[in-house]
Design brief:
Layout (H helix, E strand, L loop, with lengths): L1 E2 L6 E2 L2 H13 L15 H11 L1 H20 L5 H18 L13 H5 L3 H20 L2 H13 L14 H11 L16 E2 L6 E2 L2 H62 L8 H14 L5 H17 L7 E2 L2 H11 L4 E6 L5 E2 L10 H14 L5 H4 L7 H14 L3 H6 L13 H10 L2 E8 L10 H11 L9 E3 L5 E5 L2 E11 L4 E6 L5 H5 L15 E3 L8 E9 L2 H10 L6 E2 L2
Length: 579
């Protein structure tokens, strides 16, 4: 007798078995006994059953294994018992395969047949107990019914006991009605879901979500604490680095300020390097060493300087007189392109010498202005008995004006000391010095440009009005009784001694510069004066382009009461601003 490995049917001969396999299993359509899948070959169906219906197929294998073991261990079994087991096995094959292909137990590895889940182990135990009872009763019909009931009875829900028609319905029931008891709830279940606001995890219970979020918060709190520690350390380090940087910056700024201050002190003669006398001696010694001055000349000049310093009067070595008169003669006979010219009162030109070169222009311009006042009778009352002082004497006179109470702010800026220094002086010092001598004057500040390209046409117009009261009908050349004007700008000062009005209505200032050598100024005294010699005096509007100009203009004599009032007003120094 031969038994079919697929369906369990027995045949008498090998040709009958071949015919059975061809007719029943080869020509017929292969259909899955669990889900009615068809249209595939035998190998594909075997793979489908092993993968899609592993649970049902596992139970079948366990039952076959029970039958095989019991069959092999029953040495003295009764015929009817054997017959029962065979019929049970046949019924299982019929129920599971039903003339359809299956995998035989001999073809599977032993390890696979021994692997099973707990749920099916319980079924296996129940099956064994059932088989033992049936062996005693040898009732084939009861064995078949019990096994069929075990495998194909309607499944009941393990949570609520509800019975469904098939396993698929039971699976849907469990996933929808008891999704909260499963590891991963379904998205389409009716129970509300709660998602974590931090990580997006889905929770079916609010309390579980709360505990989950608390864990996030604890982790975040711990991380924030660590961050605060690191942040505190970083801030402390950044603060230290900032303090170090600020310290270096302040140190560098202090060093630069000190260097700039020292440069300014040196520039303005406040570096304690000596004054007029010391510079005069050093420069003359340098000239002797270079062979430009004979030693005898050195001693002669030194003696004259010491005498001048002793009496406080300028020795006149750098003075050039008579230039205004020479200019008057020139304009009378030449300068055809000049319509009118106004000249100041007589004034002497003073050149900077070895003792004040580079810083003494303010003192030299004061000497020019004072030389004009001394030659004007109107100022004899306040300047009676005076002579043009030397530079150290002028410094002493300014210090005396400070002591009287003039310009305390300017005095403090120069440390209340000028003698023995090379400190510069400007319009303010000239003003307080003249005021202390009861000479009436005022300062006009042309603090910004009033014309194109940084020019100052308003300055020229003011000076023209100063020298001329009635221009129409006046002669070509006018020698006025007006004193010259002190002109100050950044880094230098000069003296205005007249103004030209040309036929094209342009204006030109006539200026004495203390930086111009006496030899050049003396060329103006020649009878045959040429126009080119006046180039060093003439300054047109386009020649004065400094940002700011200040002038000191003399107006007359002060009374004692006016002097006191102006001294009081100089406590807070102000000037007339144009524009």
């Amino acid at each position: 007798m031969l038994s079919c490995d697929i369906c369990g049917e027995t045949v008498t001969s090998e040709p009958d078995m071949k015919a059975h396999l061809l007719i029943v299993h080869m020509e017929n359509e292969v259909i899955c006994p669990f889900c009615k899948l068809s249209g595939v070959n035998y190998d594909e169906m075997c793979f489908h059953i092993e993968t899609a219906h592993f649970e049902q197929n596992e139970l079948e294998r366990n039952l076959e294994r029970i039958n095989t073991i019991q069959y092999e261990t029953s040495d003295n079994g009764v015929d009817n018992t054997l017959q029962c087991r065979m019929e049970v096995n046949s019924s299982i094959h019929s129920a599971c395969a039903s003339n359809h292909p299956k995998i035989s137990t001999q073809s599977l590895p032993k390890d696979d047949t021994l692997k099973h889940k707990d749920f099916y182990s319980e079924n296996l135990t129940e099956s064994r107990k059932f088989l033992k009872s049936t062996e005693k009763q040898c009732d084939l019909s009861r064995i078949k019914g019990a096994i069929y009931e075990t495998m194909y009875s309607p499944p009941d829900c393990p949570f609520c006991g509800k019975i469904e028609d098939c396993s698929q319905d039971m699976e849907t029931h469990v996933k929808t009605k008891h999704a909260n008891l499963l590891d991963t709830p379904l998205e389409d279940c009716d129970q509300p879901l709660y998602d974590c606001p931090m990580c997006g995890l889905m929770c079916t219970n609010y309390h579980i979500l709360q505990e989950h979020v608390d864990l996030h918060l604890e982790e975040s709190s711990f991380g924030q604490g660590m961050d605060r520690v690191h942040c505190s350390r970083d801030l402390e380090l950044a603060h230290q680095l900032q303090q170090e940087e600020d310290r270096k910056r302040r140190s560098e700024e202090s060093r630069q300020e000190m260097e700039e201050f020292q440069k300014l002190q040196q520039q303005y003669g406040l570096d304690n390097s000596g004054g007029y006398k010391q510079q005069q001696l050093r420069n003359m010694e340098r000239e002797v060493n270079r062979g430009r001055m004979h030693p005898s000349e050195f001693h002669r000049r030194k003696a004259g300087m010491m005498e001048s310093l002793a009496v406080g009067i300028d020795d006149g070595k750098t003075k050039t007189s008579g230039i205004i008169e020479a200019l008057y003669r020139y304009y009378q006979n030449a300068a055809a392109d000049v319509r009118h010219v106004w000249l100041s009162a007589a004034v002497d030109h003073f050149q900077s010498s070895f003792g004040d070169k580079g810083w003494g222009c303010g003192y030299r311009n004061f000497q020019m202005l004072l030389s004009s006042l001394l030659q004007t009778d109107a100022y004899d009352d306040c300047l009676k008995g005076m002579s043009v002082p030397c530079i150290p004497k002028i410094q002493s006179m300014i210090e005396d004006a400070w002591k009287e109470g003039f310009d305390p702010q300017g005095a403090s800026q120069l440390n209340n000391k000028l003698q023995g220094t090379k400190a510069w002086i400007g319009a303010c010092e000239v003003y307080i010095l003249l005021t202390s001598l009861r000479v009436k004057c005022h300062i006009i500040d042309f603090h910004k440009s009033t014309g194109p390209l940084g020019t100052h046409p308003r300055l020229f117009e003011w000076i023209l009005n100063y020298f001329s009261s009635e221009r129409e009908g006046s002669p070509k050349v006018v020698c006025t009784s007006k004193p010259p004007i002190y002109l100050q700008h950044q880094g230098h000062s000069r003296t205005i001694v007249g103004i030209e009005e040309r036929k094209n209505r342009t204006l030109c200032l006539l200026i004495f510069d203390p930086g111009c050598p006496s030899q050049e100024m003396q060329k103006l005294l020649k009878q045959d004066l040429e126009a080119n010699s006046l180039k060093q005096l003439r300054k047109f509007v386009g020649n004065l382009k400094h940002k700011q100009y200040q002038i000191v203009a003399v107006e007359g004599i002060l009374t004692s009461e006016e002097k006191v009032a102006r001294r009081q007003a100089s406590q807070v120094f102000t000037a007339e601003k144009i524009p």
